[in-house]
Amino acid sequence: MRMLCDKKIYESQPLESQKFSELKAYLYDLLLKVLQQFDEQQSIEYRLNHFLQSIAVLFKRGHYQDCHELLLKANRLASKYESFTHLLDLIRWEKQLAYTRMDADFFYRELDRLVYEEKQALRLMDNVAAYRRAFFTIYASVKKDAQLRDEVLLHRLNDLLADPIFDNPDQALSHKARVFYYRTLNLYYYTVQNQEAFYESGQQLIALLESQPHFLQESLSDYIAGLSNFILSCGLQGKYDEVRSSLQKLHQLKPITADDRQKIHRQYYSNYFMLCIDTGDFAGARTLMESYLEKSKALESQPQESVSFYFSFCYICFGCGEFSSALDYLNQWLSQPRTVEREDLQSLARIMALIIHFELGNTVLLDSLLRSATRFMQKKNRLFDLERRFMQLMSELMKATGSREEIAALSKTREDLRPLAKMPATQALLQTFDLDAWLQSRIMGSSFATVVQIKWQEQHQKP
User: Residue 111: inside a domain, yes or no?
Assistant: First the structure.
């Protein structure tokens, strides 16, 4: 192989001028070309690009009739898959071909059609772009703070959704635009904690995606994200049969890309963990956690994927009463660089750290941890009513001289949190970690898992 490469690249050049780095670059370029040829069989974008390259090659050699036949095939494919940029290129080639052939009759007959199709393609591109901008604006906000308690940002998102393009689905002029329309609404309703609308918009998104299966053969990214959010919405609505059926649907998806494989793996397990946590099945979640870690090794998961699970692992170990392991995972999560991780979880993580140290009996550390957590929340402007009341509780628990005083402080805090729990933003935070269940477990002298199971059974028992 080395000799063949030498001969191909260097021909008759002297041996001393040959460099391994050049051979390496040549081989890398060759592999990319092979992969591109493979993708031309699978990807619509590559197939359309191949059509355009073939048209250019044939045009250069004067095979105009062959160009025309390829234009027709490419146009049908681009229209079916709403590839508006390729449609513009094809319209340009159609005009160029007629001009080169001096076909004035063609322009007389077809110019109005071509101008209309060109304007329509541009209009559809602009329409998709408008919805895409709105979606990523909300997406960035959710990644920053899923439990939105910033009033300025909330008003900004409300103004965004007041745009006429969100008046009704008919404002979205293509399938791709409608997908962004429903994905944007779905994220918005999650952010503002409108659980019923979150569920309904997710249901509409899944129905839309499944109505056009040829798009799913090209890309699964939107479908994976839509299914994951729909599973979450079903859990919030207590529709656990739909949670399980949607989990199965997600698990059975056949990935198209390596990214799909990672996303399916990640979303399936993260949602399954939440199902176990919601129902109090922490032992089942612990077993599932070991399965996840084993399969992640085989998939060679990216480091950032593991980071996103540290918080869940902490919660699972906490529910199993493995407080040292819970603290290890929490510290791993807190030690990661703060880039796109949710800021609201950073505050909650410090609350959980205090709870875990309290469970471990690390009373010596609690005072300094309490001061540190308070400073952090003040600095981040996140010392809201719930956080302030919890810090007060920890201070009272450190001063308690016996179990009677401890139970009195816990009971008083639980009572004080009831009205706060009805506020949408606080309610969302308490869905991430069931603080009420922990307070109740300490008051009753029961395990956290037992209280979560009892609460879940009471909420979902059949009448």
Answer: no
- Under a CB-based contact definition with an 8 Å cutoff, are residues 352 and 330 in contact? yes
Rounded CA-CA distance 159/409 in Å is 43
Is 329 a domain residue? yes
Q: What is the DSSP letter of 171?
A: G
Q: Is residue 437 part of a domain?
A: yes
Gap between the Cα atoms of 108 and 103, Å rounded:
9
- Does 450 map to a domain? yes
Residue 53 to residue 43: CA distance in whole angstroms = 15
Q: Is 433 helix (H, G, I), strand (E, B) or coil?
A: coil
CA 312/CA 326 separation, integer angstroms: 9
Number of structural domains the chain divides into:
3
- pLDDT (tens, 9 = 90+) of the chain, 463 residues, equals 445 555 555 556 554 445 667 767 777 777 776 666 665 556 888 889 999 999 999 999 999 999 999 999 999 999 999 999 999 999 999 999 989 988 888 888 888 999 999 999 999 999 999 999 999 988 887 776 555 556 667 788 888 889 999 999 999 999 999 999 999 999 999 888 889 999 999 999 999 999 999 999 889 999 999 999 999 999 988 899 999 999 999 999 999 888 899 899 999 999 999 999 999 999 999 999 998 988 887 766 554 455 668 889 999 999 999 999 999 999 988 887 665 455 667 888 899 999 999 999 998 899 999 999 999 888 887 788 888 999 999 999 998 888 999 999 999 999 998 887 777 666 666 778 899 999 999 999 999 999 999 998 888 765 4
Structure tokens at 454: 């009892």
Under 8 Å CB-to-CB from 267, ≥6 apart: which residues? 224, 225, 227, 228, 250
Name the helix (H) or strand (E) containing 384. Answer: none
What is d(CA 316, CA 293) in angstroms, rounded to the nearest whole number?
Answer: 14
Phi/psi at 205 (5° precision): -65, -45
Distance CA 266, CA 279 (A): 20
Q: How many CA atoms lie within 13 A of 252 on its CB side?
A: 6
Cβ–Cβ contacts within 10 Å for residue 31, how many? 10
- The position carrying tokens 């390496």 is 24
276/285 Cα distance (integer angstroms)? 6
The whole domain housing 426 covers 342-463
* Gap between the Cα atoms of 388 and 296, Å rounded: 39
Residue 352 and residue 461 in one domain: yes
Contact 250, 232 (CB under 8 A): no
| Residue that finishes a domain, picked among 319, 338, 357 | 338
